[in-house]
Amino acid sequence: MTQKIVLDVKEAPTFSEIFTQHVSDISLEVEAIKLRNLRNDADGINEHLARIESALIGIMEARLALAEKVLHSKSSN
User: Fold this and answer.
1) Measured between alpha carbons, how far is 70 from 58 in angstroms, rounded to an integer?
2) Per the CB 3.0–4.6 Å rule, which of 2, 41, 64, 70 could disulfide with 36?
């Protein structure tokens, strides 16, 4: 999931909203992995791990975008 962070625009999600969504996604995937582990479903576990990796990348991209926005706003002032 890739989302852009835009400051001072109400329609765009905030960093906090993006972060919360990604953490929620990770929590759900971890629970699914636990169930797949009980069934010895390695392929299913790998699918969930890929989704977790995607959520973590989304968090890193959101954090980078936020840092760039803050740096840009500081350099504008």
Assistant:
1) 18
2) 41
- pTM of the full structure: 0.71
d(CA 49, CA 72): 34
Q: Of 55, 50, 1, nearest to 27 (Cα)?
A: 55
Please answer whether residues 76 and 12 qualify as being in contact, where contact means their C-beta atoms are separated by less than 8 angstroms.
Answer: no
| Degrees to nearest 5, angle at CA 39 with 38 and 42 | 105
Element (H or E) spanning 14, and its range?
none
- The Cα-based distances of 55 to 29, 49, 52 in angstroms read 10, 10, 5
pLDDT digits (tens, 9 = 90+) for 9-45: 567 888 899 999 999 999 999 999 999 999 999 999 9
